[in-house]
Amino acid sequence: MRFPLPARARTTAAVLAVGLPATLVAFGAPAQAAASADVPAYTLSSTISPAPLTAADCGPDCVVAPAPRGGTLDDYAALNQVVAAAAAKTVPAVVAADGTVTTPAKTATILLQAGTYRLTKGLRLPPNVNLRGAGIAATVLLADPTVNWKNFSYSFLVRPTDDKSAGSSNLVSDLTVNGNCRTGAGAFDDATLPGSPGELCDFRTTVGASTNTAGGISVGDRWTVRQVRFTNLEYFKLWINYASGARIVDNRFDNRGGGESGDEDNIGGGGRNDGTIIENNQFDATINGNSFDFTNAIRTVVRNNIVHTTPEVAAARGHKEYGNMYFEGVVGATVTGNTLEGAHIVLKSNSGYAHTGNNKDVTNPRDILVANNVIRDSATVGVAVAYDDYTDADGTTGTLGGWNDFSTADDDHVVRAGGNNTVRDNVIERSRETGVIVYGQNAAKNAADTITGNRIVNAGFGGSTSYSTGAGYFDTAGVGVSVGSKDVVTGNTIVDDQANPTTWYGVQIGARKGSSKATYTSVGNNTTSGLIGSALRTAANAPEAPGNLTATADSVSWDESYATGNPIAGYKVYRDGLPVATLPTGTATIPGNLLDTDAAGLENASAGTAGWTAGGSGTRVARSTAAGAVGSASLQLTSATAGQISTYSKKVTPTVGATYTSVASFQATGTARRVRAGIAFTDANGKVTRLASSNASTVDATTGWMTSAYTAVAPAGAVSAQAFLMVENTVVGESHLLDRLGLVEGTATEGLTGLSSGTYQVVAYRTDSSENSGATTVTIP
User: Fold this and answer.
1) Residue 740 shares a structural domain with residue 756
2) Fewest CB within 10 angstroms: 278, 538, 579, 594, which?
């Protein structure tokens, strides 16, 4: 959204970032689904509106406007006189002191004839004056900014006068407003693309007009806009700001007939407007901008609208997506029965705007119902609910308040906490990311949300395996919640019925690397099928993902997962969402291992310890056949004295400045200890530089194998390098086993070969198999 005054431009300064999901790891070119046959095609035909007014129906309170003059002649003066004549016929309502209308207003109507009325200035309707055409495709109001474009700067073809009248009403219906962005364009046709996508409007280049010129209709209190087509408009198509009781019914938004438009919202505004109803409108795939975006509003109803968008039109303009519905700083809204193709619904705060006026104070989404909508092929998520705030100059966030609380101090602002939002009974199909996501900052939310009864199909279709919201990382799931207390996620159906699934989890609680937490979340009675991973994942229990997944013509390789408090047991590899291999500890062979096979696995009895030597007199080194991470043998270190025990591999010749990584898997035979991988570099003078991991989470155990890895650059003068492996704080007599031992140039210590073309995903899995890491993805062409 752009506000009609430049001073209210969006800013990101001092915002605690909670952005829209941004894809970090993509599958490549997005898959595209065929258009849904059960969604009605875009049409100008009325859905619920009555037939247009005719001259025969034009009674004493109706004024028939003269016919358009035609050509390039201006019709503004003639229509302005008709407006004055109609205004003279109106009588204001009689309103009691408590606001009750005791005598309704008397309205008057202007009937426009068929044809195109050319306007060099926008019409201003007084209270109780209606403006009706001969039909949505019959009567056209056409802006002509070439005479004096400033008449339309931050302004509209039709707007209210400045005076207000209690109990008044206005109706604008049965006509087209055409902003003349493309000269001569706007006739209705069956085109699926705008004529000149992404180019400036003609009047921008011919007469030097600025942006935000020639919008459609700006409404006032209790205005109804019905069966109006909005096309070829550079500025906001329909603007609803500081208005009460507006009804936007059965209108059409497009850029057909060679038209185009700016990227301002099709329906925009806010200004704490109250009680707006937006219903049964249709948005064609040729639109630009959001279908709907309110910033600061209460009791908004958006129902039974149809939004068509396509990736082809987005790409033609250089956009990722368009047509979305944004509720920014909106409370008490109802969003029901809408159908969105290629677009999605977002509930969020208004903190992303310049912190002045109504946007000095922050309103988070609250008491909103999102129900019975159909959302298909969203470029990101299906429904996003975000909570955030910004910091004042003193580094603190806002003071908690409600809708009617306002800040009075220059150095503080009010934050209206969100929550109590319900997302239920929606159908969300093929969203490129998670179906429903709730995320942000704990302090900006103080009531629980409910996500129930939704059917989410093939989440992640053509999209990413994981992505950042700005407040943590999510993996593709049916539902994701990372902020709030006592939220309810129940009764949802999460399905992946593809031959190559893309949905990793049913429900994800918490975000990886996020500062906020979801606590006491109720998760139950959700139905899942066809998932790659599990029905429920708790991000707090997820291990770190493997890094630097790389492909060759027939292989993939990756770096060891960094050990955390959630230690891994190994890796799982998938091809196009289907399992390929489960690898306890890791792949059987370390790719590019500079140590020979005997030293890597100790399987050859005749090789003995295969060149491994004790790191000091306190260490005893032997070959063991008690257990192996890969195979049946391993290297055994036994403590002769208390403290650190260690071992060195044979020396290899390094390249100065090159990167090297050592790796080993450890298992305790008794007491668990911290284990560490390192590298020892020796120069020509015999000086040894020992470098090692400082990871405190690499603690071995008597079951499973703990992997430690360490990466370093060969220093100047180095003539040899050795894997240097340690066990800390041992007591006399205790032993530890080491296996799958390696030293590689580079960082990749895991790899699979003999693979065919496809997209491969690799995750690390926990020792108790309860959680996977996020997936890393690479494609073999």
Assistant:
1) no
2) 579
